[in-house]
Amino acid sequence: MATTVLVTGATAGFGKAIAERLVRDGYRVIATGRRKERLDELAAALGPALLPFVLDMTDSAAVQALPGSLPEDWRQVDVLINNAGLALGLDKAQQASVEDWQRMIATNVTGMVEITRALLPGMVERNRGHVISLGSTAGTYPYLGANVYGASKAFVSQFMRNLRCDLLGTHVRATNLEPGLCGGSEFSNVRLRDDAKAAAVYDGTHPIQPEDIAETVSWVLGLPAHVNINRIEMMPTCQASAGLAVVKG
Ligand code: NDP
Ligand code: 8X3
Known about the structure:
- By secondary structure, the chain is an alpha/beta fold.
- About 40% of the residues lie in helices and about 15% in strands.
- It has a single domain, classed as NAD(P)-binding Rossmann-like Domain (Rossmann fold, 3-Layer(aba) Sandwich).
- The structure holds NADPH dihydro-nicotinamide-adenine-dinucleotide phosphate and 2-hydroxyethylsulfonic acid.
- The site of NADPH dihydro-nicotinamide-adenine-dinucleotide phosphate has 30 residues, from helix 1 and helix 6.
- It comes from Gluconacetobacter azotocaptans.
- InterPro entries: KR_dom, NAD(P)-bd_dom_sf, Sc_DH/Rdtase_CS, SDR_fam.
């Protein structure tokens, strides 16, 4: 049977492009997210190799009930793509919304670790599997207003490093993918809650596209089983870190 991949947040952006690419590559894909109609559209476009499955990453009970709540012939999940996530706001910490912080932590951190915990035992038991998470350059490089979003991605990065330690001696692989500026997704629309401001983020730039992320995931997964890519930091050519800032006076 084809390798089964579960992609979280497959209704938009990277997750959708990853699901499309991996079905094309010959994988069976469980596509999850909250927006059922988007998942159904994906299933209609991609056929029986894609299973749409509504899952809210902040619903701990539903997340922890995986894989038991999947149809029986989809329960052996070989690959987990921890992609669902979001940034909310760019306010300074002293002004940011606590509710926004709670939602980012619930999705990017709590949901991500809970689904990993739910699916990892099956991978270890079968001695075959791969967890790929979407970290971010925001987990390494601080910037104004990134406060909790950046911290959530730093958590993802260290969690993935620690997974490698726990999985040593098994054939289960773990990879953290850390992109910088990316367009073609709903990330900035969600973050800024304003489509015009979101579009302006990418004015005059040539950002990484969801298909570039999907290509990278496809490459990481397709490497021989003895090769583990620990982490990949990727930026568009038009981006680099700006270094430290100093205020005088
Ligand atoms: P999008 O906003 O386009 O997609 C986010 C996806 O996450 C959607 O499918 C959404 O589905 C899902 N999602 C959000 N909240 C939940 C939830 N509570 N339960 C289930 N699914 C949820 O963003 P991107 O594709 O750009 O981002 C994907 C990942 O990549 C994120 O983790 C992001 O932090 C990371 N990333 C993004 C970068 C960028 O510049 N775009 C750069 C670096 C990393 P739905 O709303 O249907 O539930
Ligand atoms: C998304 C990239 O630079 O907006 O994680 O934080 S950035």
